[in-house]
Specification:
This protein is α+β, with helices and mostly antiparallel strands and 100 residues long. The protein has a single domain (2-87), classed as Dimeric alpha+beta barrel (Alpha-Beta Plaits, 2-Layer Sandwich), CATH 3.30.70.1060. Helix content is 32%, strand content 34%. It has helices at residues 13-30, 61-69, 72-76; strands at residues 2-9, 35-42, 49-57, 79-87. It has a four-stranded antiparallel sheet with strand order 2-3-1-4. The longest helix has 18 residues, at 13-30.
Length: 100
Amino acid sequence: MLVLVICKDADDAARRREATMNEHLLHADEIAPSLRLAGRIVDEAGSGTVGSFLLVDVADAAEARRLVQDDPYSRAGVWRDVAYHPVELAGQNGFDTQER
């Protein structure tokens, strides 16, 4: 199951992120087999970080929650809000272009 995880930053996330970045990256290495895509969400100017996103391939939504809850950013309070969305990727087997 693919789950898109959207993590919105807390107000003082920059300080917390800096203090836990090494541990966060080690955790990312540990869960790499489940990660399909991950990165930061930036502000409209493209310069400041306002959150993170992950696309994980997991057995179920509970596993996605566990991966995020075990992340040092989560434990340090970097993220104020985390949302989980099961998704399906478009075009995996091409697109059906027949008229409907």
